[in-house]
Amino acid sequence: MEKQEKIVSMFDNIAPTYDTANRVMSMGVDKSWRRKACDLAYQFYAKDSLDRIVDVACGTGDMMDFWKKRSEVNGIAVGEVIGVDPSVGMVDVAREKYPEFNYHISKATEIPLEDGSADFLSITYGIRNVVERKEALDEFSRVLKKDGLVIILEFMKNENPSAIAKLMNFYTNKILPKVGGFISKNLEAYEYLPNSIEDFSTVANMVNELENAGFEMVYNKSFSMDISTLLIARKK
Ligand SMILES: C[S@@+](CC[C@H](N)C(=O)[O-])C[C@H]1O[C@@H](n2cnc3c(N)ncnc32)[C@H](O)[C@@H]1O
C-alpha cells in the first residue's frame, strides 16, 4: 500500500476511539488553541459575514463546531461550513456528531469545490498527514477567495527548542503513544504520531512553503511549551 493510503486506512481504523484518545492525550488543551485560531481569524478578516469555511482533514469534526460556535460569539454570519477528509471512518463519526455540516470524502490535494469560493480554509493537526504538501497548498490557494485565510494548527518542531520543549518531546515520543495505543488498541497508529512530528517540516520551513504557494503570513505563534503552532496566512 502506498504511504498516503496507509495513513488514511490507519485513521479509518482508529476513528471509533479517536475522540476519547484525543481527550485523554491532550487533556483538553487543544480546545484553547482551536478557540484562539477561530477568534484571531475572524478578527483578521474583519467581515460581518462569510460565505464558506472549509475544514480540510476535518476528521471527527470538532474544528467545524468551533468555527460555528465562535462565529456566534463574535457576531459573524457564516453561510456554510464544509468538512473534507479522505477517511470514511472519520467522516462517519463527524456526520453523526454534526449532521448540520456538509462533507466531502476527498484528499487535501483534490478539494471538490470551485475556484475562489472559500473565505477560510483550516487544517488542524492534519497537514503533517498530507504526503503531497506542495500540491495541497496550491489547492488551498485555488479554493480560497483573494484575501481569504488559511489557518493551520499543527504539532511542529521549532528550530531552537527550549529545555522545556525537549522535555515535552520525551512525553510525546515515549508516553503518549502508549496512552493512545492502549485506548485504541492500535499501538502502531499512535507510534506514528511522534514519528510524523519528527518527519514533519519545521515552523520556518512551513512558513517558506506557504509564501512560495502565494500566501502572506499574518500570524505565527507556538503555544503551550511550543507543542502546538498556529499559522495564519492570507491569499494574495
Ligand atoms: C489527527 S486527525 C485531525 C482531525 C481534525 N482536524 C482534528 O483537529 O481533530 C488527521 C486527519 O487527517 C486526515 N488525512 C490524512 N491524509 C489526508 C490527506 N491527504 N488530505 C486530507 N486529510 C487527510 C485523516 O483522515 C484524519 O482525519
Task: Explain what the structure shows.
Helix content is about 50%, strand content about 25%. It has a 7-stranded mixed sheet with strand order 3-2-1-4-5-7-6, with helices on both faces. A hairpin with a 4-residue loop joins strand 6 and strand 7. It is α/β, with parallel strands linked by helices. Helix 6 (about 165-185) runs antiparallel to helix 7 (about 185-200). Bound molecules: S-adenosylmethionine (SAM). S-adenosylmethionine (SAM) binds near residues 8, 63, 125, 126 and 129. S-adenosylmethionine binds near residues 4, 63, 85 and 130.
Can you give me a brief rundown of this structure?
By secondary structure, the protein is an alpha/beta fold. The protein has 8 helices and 7 strands.
Task: List its traits.
seven-stranded mixed sheet; 7 strands; 50% helix; globular; binds S-adenosylmethionine
What is the distance, rounded to the nearest whole angstrom, between the alpha carbons of the first and last residues?
A: 38 Å
Largest sheet: 7 strands, mixed
SSE-based structural type = alpha/beta
Portion of residues in helices? 40-55%
Radius of gyration over all CA atoms, rounded: 17 Å
Order of helices and strands: HHEHEHEEHEHHHEE
Task: Give average pLDDT, whole number.
Answer: 91
Based on CA inertia axes, which overall geometry fits?
A: globular
What topology, given as strand order, has the largest sheet? 3-2-1-4-5-7-6
Question: Number of helix segments?
Answer: 8
Number of beta-strand segments: 7
Instruction: Please indicate the percent range of residues in DSSP E strands (runs of 2 or more).
Output: 15-25%
Q: What small molecules does this complex bind?
A: S-adenosylmethionine
Question: Which runs of at least 5 residues are low in confidence (pLDDT < 50)?
Answer: none
